[in-house]
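ok trying again, last paste got cut off:
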Amino acid sequence: MTQSEMTKGALLVLNSGSSSVKFTIFQVGAKAQDQVSPLFAGQLTGIGTDANLKAKTSEGKLITNESWADKDKGSVPAILPHLLEWIETNLPADLPLKAAGHRVVHGGETYDKPVLVQGDVFKKLADLSPLAPLHQPQNLAAIEALANSRPELPQVACFDTAFHQTQPPLSTTYAIPKRYTDEGVRRYGFHGLSYEYIAHNLRENKPDLAKGRVVVAHLGNGASLTALDNGVSVETSMGFSALDGVPMGTRPGSLDAGILIHLMRTYDMDADDLEKLLYHQCGLLGVSNISNDMRELEENSDPNAQLAVDLFSIKVAKQIASLAITLGGIDGLIFTAGIGEHGPIIRKKICDYLAWIGFELDVAANDANEELISTESSIPVYIIPTDEELMIARHTVNVLSA
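nice, full thing came through this time. structure:
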């Protein structure tokens, strides 16, 4: 597809999970990525139990909020053709659907940039599934479902790992026998599309800071942090899998590997048991035994809830300090994603732990979730909302216009 063929049309961006699908529809204009603008977005939730579709325009006006139980056959691939039909029905007549862009968690060492899914690309991505067993198969199932229902529709895979391919061996190597490293057991890092957006945003709006040493904290139900030096990723908290780093909603973050050996020997756990434990039963939920939702924990006076909040905060603060060592200093801190953008209590706790470095928040600005939330004498601290979907849309147009 040439750029001229992308001059006017619609682009679908998909982020598929095991029981939900997030989607955004962009209009593509005459100047490729400069004219990519969102039309509407939505989410299919409860797939397999009680599917529901909710969608809003880019201005926030509700388009629909309806049960799709009658269309729910128990899986994302089975319901995607219905979603595609609904999307095309709701598109303006002069904006035909031209392509789809997908968030794909793992690109391995092969893919350091987005790629058109053709030839043996799908098989190579499927071969990476053991590296991201809960995410990669779901991402690929959506690609396959669209290929089956609309084989003529170009699809582009955009990777969460690609942005971190710039990291040096000092940041990516584990202290394990080299033969395993050579076979791909290394630190990859994730949330790359989010960090890439932040790096672009800084270059456009804060060029002086963009050239400096910046730590970005992507804090949500999944959480990680990345050190940027002149906008380039040099180290990140997640490693071989999306389990590493700081505690998350249901994932533990960094964990002594000896604990896993202990669980296998003492509780007769196998790989499947450990996978279920580490991805679904740990993190904020495991510590609190109440919830994986930070908002619920902040409002709960139970000591275990407060322990979970404080543990998350201090682990994030320690990670920021660690990344500052990698950078040789720190010129700015960026909070992004759900907790990062909307969690003044957590941001305050984190920055209080780092006061000795030179962080001090403006209480009123922090409570109001303003863009600049630090005092004049502090190292700058910003809130910058991320936009992974926009990055996927831009990448998709660029790949198809090449």
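cool. The radius of gyration is 21 Å. Residues 8 and 29 are 5 Å apart (CA to CA).
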